[in-house]
Amino acid sequence: MFKHRFIACFIALSCFLAASTILHAQEIRATVNVDFAPGFEINEQDNFASFRQEIQAYFNTQIFTGKEWKNEADKILWKDEPVQMNVTITLLNGTQTSYYNATMLVVAKRTLFGTKKQSVTMQILDTKVKFPYQRGASFSFQPLRFDDLLSVLDYYAMLAIGYDLDSFYPLGGTPYFQKAQQILQLGANTQSQYMSMSVDNGWRETAIEPGKISRTSIVGELLESRYNDFRTLNAAYYLNALDFLGDKPDEAKATVDELLTKYADFKDKLPNRSAIFQLFFDSKFRELADLFRGYKNDKVWDKLKYNDPSRTIIYEDTRTGRK
Fold first, then answer.
1. What are phi and psi of 181, to 5 degrees?
2. Within 29-142, where are the H helices?
3. Virtual CA dihedral for 7, 13, 19, 25, nearest 10 degrees?
4. Do the bridges between strand 83-94 and strand 99-111 make them parallel or antiparallel, or are there none, so unpaired?
5. CA distance 64 to 59
6. Residue 9's CB: how many other CB atoms inside 10 A?
7. What is the pLDDT at residue 17?
8. Which of 7, 143, 187, 296 has the fewest CB atoms inside 10 Å of its own CB, making it the most exposed?
9. CA-to-CA distance for 259 and 241, rounded, in angstroms?
10. Helix 150-166 vs helix 51-61: angle between axes, to the nearest 10 degrees?
C-alpha cells in the first residue's frame, strides 16, 4: 500500500488537471549541451552555432502531452512542475551532405517531496543518432510525421514524461510509453531519404538480444505486462521511500532496504536479462550507494551487489569507506 504522501500527490495532480483545460504549463525544462568529438571537422562546427539553442527551445516550448490527455484525469495524471532534463549531444562525424552521426545522453530528474533534492528517474545513452541538419532549421512538433532528428527528441521526451509520471503514480506513465512506441513504429516503418533501410539508425531491430538497451527493448519492456510489478516497485521507491527522506530519513532508508529484496525477487522471476531493470540501476547506483553509506544493516550491500553485479566494486568501496 502506498502511504499518505501518495494521496497528497494524487490530489495535487488531479487539481492541476482540472485547472489546465485551457492553459498549458511548461512540460519539460531541458538544459542542452552540444559537444564535438575529437576529429570533428572545424568548418563543420560552424554549422552548429545555433543548434544547442534550437534543441533546447524545442524541448522547452512544445506541448508533448496534448490537450486530450490533460482533460481526462481518469486516464492520466499530470503535475505543475516540469520534467527536468539534461541532454548532451556529441557530434561524432559529418558528411558533405550535412548528414551527421551523434550520441545523445538523456537524463531526467524529479524533485523529492519537501526538499530541493533531485533524483534521476531516467538515464539513457543513445549511440545511434543519425540526422541531417542545416543551420537555422525550423523545428516543429509533428508526432505523426517521421523526422530523423525530431523523432528521436520526441521519443525521449515521451519516455522522460512517462518515467516521471511513473514515479508519482503506479503505471502512471503508460500513455506516454505508448506514444513513444508509436514514434518507434513510425521510425521503423519509414524510409529515411538520407539512408538505406539496411543502415542501423536505432529504429529497426529484427532480433533483440535479451537485456540489450535499445529504443525497441525499452518501450517493449515498459509496456509488457510482466514488468508492471517492476514499475510499481519504482513508484514505491519514490512515494514510500525517497519522498520521505526530508522528514523521516531512517524510515525511508529502511523502506528502500525492503524494496531491494523485492527487486531481487523480481529479478529471480525474469527468464532473461532486462533492459529496464539495468537502466534503473544505471540511474540509481550512485544514489543508492550514497544513501546506505554508514547504514547499520550490512546485508543491504549484498542486495545491491546481487541486483547490480557490474558495480560490485563501487558498492564495496562505499561500504568500507574507501570512497
1. -65, -40
2. 42-45, 51-61, 67-70
3. 160
4. antiparallel
5. 9
6. 20
7. 42
8. 296
9. 9
10. 40
Contact at 8 Å (CB) between 285 and 303?
no
Taking only the tens place, the pLDDT of each residue in 169-219 is: 999 999 999 999 999 999 888 866 666 555 667 887 766 777 789 999 999
> 142 exposed, middle or buried (CB, 10 Å; 0-12, 13-18, 19+)?
exposed
Q: What letter represents residue 87's amino acid?
A: V
CA distance 316 to 319: 5
* 83 contacts 25 by C-beta, under 8 angstroms: no
pLDDT of 1 higher than 80: no
The grid coordinates of residue 288 equal 543508492
Question: Which amino acid would we find at residue 148?
Answer: D
Domain boundary assignment for the chain: 4-227, 229-320
Helix (H, G, I), strand (E, B) or coil at 119: strand
Grid cell for residue 145: 510525421
Cell numbers that stand for 171 in this block: 503505471
Kindly give, in sequence order, each residue whose CB lies less than 8 Å from that of residue 202, ignoring residues fewer than 6 positions away: 126, 128, 129, 130, 152, 187, 214, 215
